[in-house]
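Ligand: pyridoxal-5'-phosphate. Inputs:
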Amino acid sequence: MIYLDNNATTRPHPEVLRNLASCMDAYANPSSLHIQGRQARGVVEEVRERVASLLGANVGEIIFTSGGAESISTVFCQEWKTLIISAVEHAAVICSANACKNKGAVVHTVGVEPDGSLDEGELTTCLRKITPRERGRTLVSLMLANNETGVIFPLERLSHSVKSHGALLHIDAVQCIGKIPVDVQQLRCDYLTISGHKFHGIKGVGALYRRREAPLAPLICGHQEQRLRGGTENTVGIVAMGTAALAASQTIEKGSKTKQLRDQLEEELAKQVAGIRINGAGATRLPNTSSITFPKRDSAALVEALSQRGLVVSSGAACSIGDAPSHVLMAMGLEADEANASIRFSLSTFTTAKEIREAIQIVADTVAGLPEVQSVC
Ligand code: PLP
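Predicted complex:
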Protein backbone atom coordinates (compact mmCIF):
# COMPACT_ATOMS: atom_id res chain seq x y z
CA MET A 1 0.00 0.00 0.00
CA ILE A 2 1.15 3.55 -0.77
CA TYR A 3 -0.46 5.80 1.82
CA LEU A 4 -0.87 9.40 0.64
CA ASP A 5 -3.76 10.39 2.92
CA ASN A 6 -1.74 11.80 5.80
CA ASN A 7 -3.90 14.92 6.21
CA ALA A 8 -6.78 12.59 7.17
CA THR A 9 -4.63 10.76 9.69
CA THR A 10 -1.07 9.52 10.03
CA ARG A 11 0.39 6.19 10.92
CA PRO A 12 1.73 6.12 14.50
CA HIS A 13 5.46 6.83 14.66
CA PRO A 14 7.50 3.62 15.28
CA GLU A 15 8.76 5.19 18.52
CA VAL A 16 5.13 5.75 19.61
CA LEU A 17 4.36 2.07 19.01
CA ARG A 18 7.46 1.05 20.97
CA ASN A 19 6.36 3.24 23.90
CA LEU A 20 2.72 2.16 23.92
CA ALA A 21 3.28 -1.14 25.69
CA SER A 22 5.34 0.45 28.44
CA CYS A 23 2.90 3.31 28.98
CA MET A 24 0.09 0.78 29.38
CA ASP A 25 1.91 -0.06 32.62
CA ALA A 26 1.31 3.50 33.84
CA TYR A 27 -2.43 2.82 33.93
CA ALA A 28 -3.09 4.34 37.35
CA ASN A 29 -5.32 7.40 37.46
CA PRO A 30 -3.10 10.53 37.40
CA SER A 31 -5.39 12.10 40.03
CA SER A 32 -4.87 9.23 42.50
CA LEU A 33 -2.72 9.97 45.53
CA HIS A 34 -0.81 6.66 45.65
CA ILE A 35 2.67 6.20 44.21
CA GLN A 36 1.33 4.73 40.98
CA GLY A 37 -1.05 7.66 40.54
CA ARG A 38 1.78 10.11 41.14
CA GLN A 39 3.90 8.25 38.57
CA ALA A 40 1.12 8.54 35.99
CA ARG A 41 0.80 12.25 36.87
CA GLY A 42 4.55 12.65 36.32
CA VAL A 43 4.28 11.09 32.88
CA VAL A 44 1.38 13.41 31.92
CA GLU A 45 3.23 16.50 33.15
CA GLU A 46 6.38 15.52 31.27
CA VAL A 47 4.37 15.47 28.05
CA ARG A 48 2.80 18.83 28.93
CA GLU A 49 6.30 20.30 29.15
CA ARG A 50 7.24 18.73 25.83
CA VAL A 51 4.13 20.04 24.03
CA ALA A 52 4.63 23.48 25.60
CA SER A 53 8.21 23.52 24.37
CA LEU A 54 7.12 22.40 20.87
CA LEU A 55 4.72 25.36 20.68
CA GLY A 56 6.85 27.93 22.54
CA ALA A 57 4.20 28.09 25.30
CA ASN A 58 4.37 28.04 29.09
CA VAL A 59 3.58 24.67 30.67
CA GLY A 60 0.44 25.98 32.42
CA GLU A 61 -0.99 27.10 29.09
CA ILE A 62 -1.42 23.58 27.65
CA ILE A 63 -4.70 21.71 28.19
CA PHE A 64 -5.06 18.12 27.01
CA THR A 65 -8.27 17.34 25.12
CA SER A 66 -9.63 14.49 23.02
CA GLY A 67 -8.44 16.08 19.77
CA GLY A 68 -8.83 18.94 17.34
CA ALA A 69 -12.63 19.06 17.27
CA GLU A 70 -12.86 19.23 21.06
CA SER A 71 -10.21 21.95 21.38
CA ILE A 72 -12.05 24.00 18.75
CA SER A 73 -15.46 23.42 20.38
CA THR A 74 -14.03 24.53 23.74
CA VAL A 75 -12.85 27.84 22.31
CA PHE A 76 -16.14 28.43 20.50
CA CYS A 77 -18.29 27.62 23.55
CA GLN A 78 -17.17 30.84 25.28
CA GLU A 79 -19.54 33.81 25.35
CA TRP A 80 -18.66 35.39 22.00
CA LYS A 81 -20.76 38.19 20.54
CA THR A 82 -19.05 38.17 17.15
CA LEU A 83 -17.06 35.55 15.29
CA ILE A 84 -14.88 35.96 12.23
CA ILE A 85 -13.86 32.81 10.38
CA SER A 86 -12.71 32.07 6.83
CA ALA A 87 -14.76 30.30 4.18
CA VAL A 88 -12.27 27.42 4.03
CA GLU A 89 -12.13 26.39 7.69
CA HIS A 90 -12.46 22.78 8.79
CA ALA A 91 -15.98 21.44 9.43
CA ALA A 92 -15.29 21.53 13.19
CA VAL A 93 -14.88 25.34 13.03
CA ILE A 94 -17.80 25.92 10.66
CA CYS A 95 -20.17 23.76 12.74
CA SER A 96 -19.03 25.45 15.98
CA ALA A 97 -19.57 28.89 14.43
CA ASN A 98 -23.05 27.85 13.29
CA ALA A 99 -23.85 26.71 16.83
CA CYS A 100 -22.79 30.18 18.13
CA LYS A 101 -24.95 31.81 15.45
CA ASN A 102 -27.97 29.80 16.62
CA LYS A 103 -27.34 31.19 20.10
CA GLY A 104 -27.39 34.79 18.80
CA ALA A 105 -23.76 35.55 17.88
CA VAL A 106 -22.97 37.34 14.63
CA VAL A 107 -20.71 35.33 12.31
CA HIS A 108 -18.69 36.93 9.50
CA THR A 109 -17.14 34.63 6.93
CA VAL A 110 -14.08 35.96 5.08
CA GLY A 111 -13.54 34.69 1.55
CA VAL A 112 -10.38 33.51 -0.16
CA GLU A 113 -8.63 34.39 -3.41
CA PRO A 114 -8.66 31.94 -6.36
CA ASP A 115 -5.30 30.55 -5.13
CA GLY A 116 -6.78 29.83 -1.68
CA SER A 117 -5.01 32.67 0.14
CA LEU A 118 -7.05 34.75 2.57
CA ASP A 119 -8.88 37.84 1.31
CA GLU A 120 -7.04 40.15 3.69
CA GLY A 121 -9.04 43.20 2.60
CA GLU A 122 -12.26 41.47 3.64
CA LEU A 123 -10.71 40.48 6.98
CA THR A 124 -9.77 44.13 7.62
CA THR A 125 -13.32 45.24 6.74
CA CYS A 126 -14.74 42.75 9.27
CA LEU A 127 -12.25 43.82 11.95
CA ARG A 128 -13.14 47.50 11.44
CA LYS A 129 -16.80 46.67 12.19
CA ILE A 130 -15.94 45.59 15.75
CA THR A 131 -17.74 48.02 18.06
CA PRO A 132 -16.35 49.07 21.47
CA ARG A 133 -18.94 46.73 23.10
CA GLU A 134 -17.65 43.80 21.06
CA ARG A 135 -13.99 44.34 21.96
CA GLY A 136 -12.81 41.32 23.95
CA ARG A 137 -15.95 39.43 22.96
CA THR A 138 -14.99 38.88 19.32
CA LEU A 139 -13.19 35.74 18.25
CA VAL A 140 -11.23 35.47 15.01
CA SER A 141 -10.65 31.79 14.22
CA LEU A 142 -8.40 31.00 11.28
CA MET A 143 -6.46 27.95 10.20
CA LEU A 144 -2.71 28.21 9.84
CA ALA A 145 -2.80 25.78 6.92
CA ASN A 146 -5.68 24.32 4.97
CA ASN A 147 -6.27 20.59 5.24
CA GLU A 148 -7.39 20.20 1.59
CA THR A 149 -5.01 22.45 -0.34
CA GLY A 150 -2.20 23.02 2.18
CA VAL A 151 -2.44 26.79 1.61
CA ILE A 152 -0.87 28.68 4.53
CA PHE A 153 -2.43 31.85 5.94
CA PRO A 154 0.18 34.46 7.03
CA LEU A 155 -1.13 34.62 10.60
CA GLU A 156 2.14 35.82 12.07
CA ARG A 157 1.67 38.97 9.99
CA LEU A 158 -2.11 39.26 10.49
CA SER A 159 -2.29 38.64 14.23
CA HIS A 160 -1.19 42.17 15.12
CA SER A 161 -4.11 43.67 13.22
CA VAL A 162 -6.56 41.17 14.80
CA LYS A 163 -5.38 42.08 18.30
CA SER A 164 -5.29 45.83 17.67
CA HIS A 165 -9.00 45.73 16.81
CA GLY A 166 -9.79 44.15 20.18
CA ALA A 167 -10.47 40.60 18.94
CA LEU A 168 -9.05 37.38 20.34
CA LEU A 169 -7.33 34.99 17.96
CA HIS A 170 -7.76 31.21 17.76
CA ILE A 171 -5.49 29.35 15.36
CA ASP A 172 -6.33 25.90 14.03
CA ALA A 173 -2.82 24.49 13.60
CA VAL A 174 -3.98 20.86 13.32
CA GLN A 175 -2.32 20.32 9.93
CA CYS A 176 0.94 22.08 10.75
CA ILE A 177 2.80 20.18 13.46
CA GLY A 178 5.99 18.61 12.10
CA LYS A 179 5.47 20.39 8.76
CA ILE A 180 6.08 24.08 9.47
CA PRO A 181 7.17 25.93 12.63
CA VAL A 182 4.30 26.69 15.02
CA ASP A 183 5.26 29.13 17.78
CA VAL A 184 2.55 30.81 19.84
CA GLN A 185 4.86 33.71 20.73
CA GLN A 186 5.52 34.52 17.09
CA LEU A 187 1.88 33.97 16.17
CA ARG A 188 0.73 36.10 19.14
CA CYS A 189 -2.47 34.06 19.38
CA ASP A 190 -4.78 33.58 22.36
CA TYR A 191 -5.73 29.99 21.59
CA LEU A 192 -4.21 27.31 19.34
CA THR A 193 -5.42 23.81 18.53
CA ILE A 194 -3.38 20.69 17.73
CA SER A 195 -4.31 17.02 17.30
CA GLY A 196 -2.07 14.02 18.05
CA HIS A 197 -3.17 11.74 15.22
CA LYS A 198 -2.20 14.29 12.58
CA PHE A 199 1.49 14.10 13.49
CA HIS A 200 2.05 10.38 14.04
CA GLY A 201 0.52 10.09 17.51
CA ILE A 202 -2.72 8.18 18.01
CA LYS A 203 -6.38 9.16 17.72
CA GLY A 204 -8.42 10.56 20.60
CA VAL A 205 -5.94 13.07 22.00
CA GLY A 206 -5.05 16.66 21.27
CA ALA A 207 -4.19 19.87 23.03
CA LEU A 208 -5.43 23.38 23.36
CA TYR A 209 -3.01 26.22 24.01
CA ARG A 210 -4.65 29.02 25.96
CA ARG A 211 -2.70 32.23 26.66
CA ARG A 212 -2.84 32.62 30.42
CA GLU A 213 -5.01 35.74 30.41
CA ALA A 214 -7.45 34.58 27.69
CA PRO A 215 -10.91 33.67 28.98
CA LEU A 216 -11.75 29.97 29.07
CA ALA A 217 -14.68 28.13 30.63
CA PRO A 218 -14.64 24.34 30.29
CA LEU A 219 -16.67 22.48 27.70
CA ILE A 220 -16.48 19.38 29.92
CA CYS A 221 -16.62 20.08 33.66
CA GLY A 222 -14.43 18.35 36.24
CA HIS A 223 -11.36 18.98 38.37
CA GLN A 224 -8.74 17.86 35.83
CA GLU A 225 -6.61 20.14 33.66
CA GLN A 226 -6.85 23.12 36.05
CA ARG A 227 -10.65 22.60 35.99
CA LEU A 228 -10.61 23.56 32.32
CA ARG A 229 -11.28 20.06 30.95
CA GLY A 230 -12.91 17.43 33.08
CA GLY A 231 -12.44 13.69 32.60
CA THR A 232 -9.66 11.28 33.55
CA GLU A 233 -6.67 12.02 31.35
CA ASN A 234 -6.07 9.72 28.38
CA THR A 235 -2.59 8.82 29.58
CA VAL A 236 -1.84 6.43 26.72
CA GLY A 237 -2.86 8.99 24.10
CA ILE A 238 -1.00 11.75 25.91
CA VAL A 239 2.23 9.73 26.07
CA ALA A 240 1.85 8.88 22.38
CA MET A 241 1.41 12.57 21.57
CA GLY A 242 4.48 13.44 23.66
CA THR A 243 6.62 10.95 21.74
CA ALA A 244 5.20 12.18 18.44
CA ALA A 245 5.81 15.81 19.48
CA LEU A 246 9.47 15.06 20.07
CA ALA A 247 9.75 13.41 16.66
CA ALA A 248 7.82 16.27 15.02
CA SER A 249 10.22 18.87 16.36
CA GLN A 250 12.95 17.04 14.42
CA THR A 251 11.04 16.53 11.14
CA ILE A 252 10.56 20.12 10.02
CA GLU A 253 14.06 20.16 8.51
CA LYS A 254 13.13 17.05 6.53
CA GLY A 255 10.23 19.06 5.04
CA SER A 256 12.39 19.95 2.06
CA LYS A 257 12.58 16.26 1.11
CA THR A 258 8.79 15.94 1.40
CA LYS A 259 8.35 19.10 -0.67
CA GLN A 260 10.67 17.75 -3.38
CA LEU A 261 8.58 14.57 -3.59
CA ARG A 262 5.31 16.52 -3.63
CA ASP A 263 6.63 18.81 -6.40
CA GLN A 264 7.83 15.81 -8.38
CA LEU A 265 4.35 14.26 -8.10
CA GLU A 266 2.75 17.44 -9.41
CA GLU A 267 5.28 18.04 -12.19
CA GLU A 268 5.15 14.46 -13.50
CA LEU A 269 1.35 14.27 -13.35
CA ALA A 270 1.12 17.57 -15.22
CA LYS A 271 3.26 15.99 -17.97
CA GLN A 272 1.41 12.68 -18.09
CA VAL A 273 -2.25 13.66 -17.53
CA ALA A 274 -3.70 16.35 -19.80
CA GLY A 275 -5.52 19.33 -18.34
CA ILE A 276 -4.90 18.82 -14.62
CA ARG A 277 -5.06 21.82 -12.31
CA ILE A 278 -3.15 22.14 -9.05
CA ASN A 279 -5.33 23.96 -6.56
CA GLY A 280 -3.53 26.63 -4.54
CA ALA A 281 -0.36 26.29 -6.64
CA GLY A 282 0.28 30.04 -6.61
CA ALA A 283 0.11 30.34 -2.82
CA THR A 284 2.52 29.36 -0.06
CA ARG A 285 1.62 25.78 0.85
CA LEU A 286 2.49 23.04 3.29
CA PRO A 287 5.30 20.91 1.85
CA ASN A 288 3.23 17.72 1.92
CA THR A 289 -0.15 18.58 0.38
CA SER A 290 -1.38 18.59 -3.19
CA SER A 291 -4.97 19.10 -4.33
CA ILE A 292 -5.34 18.21 -8.00
CA THR A 293 -8.37 18.52 -10.28
CA PHE A 294 -8.62 15.81 -12.97
CA PRO A 295 -11.17 17.32 -15.35
CA LYS A 296 -14.17 15.16 -16.23
CA ARG A 297 -13.28 12.47 -13.71
CA ASP A 298 -15.42 11.62 -10.69
CA SER A 299 -13.22 11.88 -7.60
CA ALA A 300 -15.13 9.20 -5.64
CA ALA A 301 -14.69 6.73 -8.52
CA LEU A 302 -11.04 7.74 -8.84
CA VAL A 303 -10.33 7.28 -5.10
CA GLU A 304 -11.94 3.83 -5.29
CA ALA A 305 -10.03 2.82 -8.43
CA LEU A 306 -6.72 4.07 -6.98
CA SER A 307 -7.27 2.24 -3.70
CA GLN A 308 -7.93 -0.98 -5.65
CA ARG A 309 -4.44 -0.51 -7.08
CA GLY A 310 -2.93 0.10 -3.67
CA LEU A 311 -2.76 3.90 -3.68
CA VAL A 312 -4.59 5.54 -0.79
CA VAL A 313 -5.65 9.16 -1.34
CA SER A 314 -8.76 11.16 -0.61
CA SER A 315 -11.35 13.17 -2.49
CA GLY A 316 -11.10 16.08 -0.04
CA ALA A 317 -11.37 16.34 3.71
CA ALA A 318 -12.11 13.06 5.50
CA CYS A 319 -14.60 14.99 7.64
CA SER A 320 -16.24 16.99 4.84
CA ILE A 321 -19.61 18.62 5.25
CA GLY A 322 -22.13 16.10 3.87
CA ASP A 323 -21.77 14.91 0.29
CA ALA A 324 -21.59 18.44 -1.09
CA PRO A 325 -18.66 19.42 -3.31
CA SER A 326 -15.68 20.66 -1.27
CA HIS A 327 -16.55 24.04 0.31
CA VAL A 328 -12.82 24.85 0.20
CA LEU A 329 -12.50 24.43 -3.56
CA MET A 330 -15.85 26.12 -4.19
CA ALA A 331 -14.68 29.11 -2.11
CA MET A 332 -11.63 29.28 -4.42
CA GLY A 333 -14.00 29.60 -7.37
CA LEU A 334 -14.07 26.07 -8.77
CA GLU A 335 -17.34 24.87 -10.31
CA ALA A 336 -19.09 21.99 -8.54
CA ASP A 337 -18.06 19.52 -11.24
CA GLU A 338 -14.42 20.64 -10.96
CA ALA A 339 -14.52 20.31 -7.16
CA ASN A 340 -16.03 16.86 -7.60
CA ALA A 341 -13.13 15.93 -9.87
CA SER A 342 -10.45 16.80 -7.31
CA ILE A 343 -8.17 14.54 -5.32
CA ARG A 344 -6.00 15.33 -2.31
CA PHE A 345 -2.58 13.73 -2.04
CA SER A 346 -0.91 14.20 1.34
CA LEU A 347 2.58 12.88 1.99
CA SER A 348 4.36 12.27 5.27
CA THR A 349 7.96 12.27 6.37
CA PHE A 350 7.84 8.47 5.82
CA THR A 351 6.90 8.79 2.12
CA THR A 352 9.68 7.51 -0.14
CA ALA A 353 10.86 8.49 -3.63
CA LYS A 354 10.00 4.96 -4.84
CA GLU A 355 6.44 5.33 -3.59
CA ILE A 356 6.03 8.64 -5.41
CA ARG A 357 7.39 7.16 -8.66
CA GLU A 358 4.90 4.31 -8.37
CA ALA A 359 2.06 6.62 -7.38
CA ILE A 360 2.63 8.77 -10.50
CA GLN A 361 2.34 5.71 -12.73
CA ILE A 362 -0.73 4.38 -10.93
CA VAL A 363 -2.52 7.74 -11.17
CA ALA A 364 -1.65 8.26 -14.85
CA ASP A 365 -2.83 4.74 -15.79
CA THR A 366 -5.96 4.88 -13.65
CA VAL A 367 -7.09 8.29 -14.91
CA ALA A 368 -6.58 7.13 -18.50
CA GLY A 369 -8.74 4.05 -17.85
CA LEU A 370 -11.54 5.87 -16.02
CA PRO A 371 -14.61 6.91 -18.06
CA GLU A 372 -15.21 10.64 -18.41
CA VAL A 373 -18.25 12.05 -16.62
CA GLN A 374 -20.51 14.46 -18.47
CA SER A 375 -21.00 17.82 -16.78
CA VAL A 376 -24.52 18.19 -15.37
CA CYS A 377 -24.34 21.99 -15.59
N1 PLP B 1 -8.87 21.12 11.94
C1 PLP B 1 -8.30 20.67 10.81
C2 PLP B 1 -7.64 21.65 9.89
C3 PLP B 1 -8.32 19.30 10.51
O1 PLP B 1 -7.76 18.87 9.37
C4 PLP B 1 -8.96 18.42 11.41
C5 PLP B 1 -9.06 16.97 11.08
O2 PLP B 1 -9.15 16.60 9.94
C6 PLP B 1 -9.52 18.93 12.60
C7 PLP B 1 -9.45 20.28 12.83
C8 PLP B 1 -10.18 18.03 13.60
O3 PLP B 1 -9.21 17.29 14.29
P1 PLP B 1 -9.58 15.91 15.04
O4 PLP B 1 -9.69 14.86 13.98
O5 PLP B 1 -8.46 15.67 15.97
O6 PLP B 1 -10.87 16.16 15.77
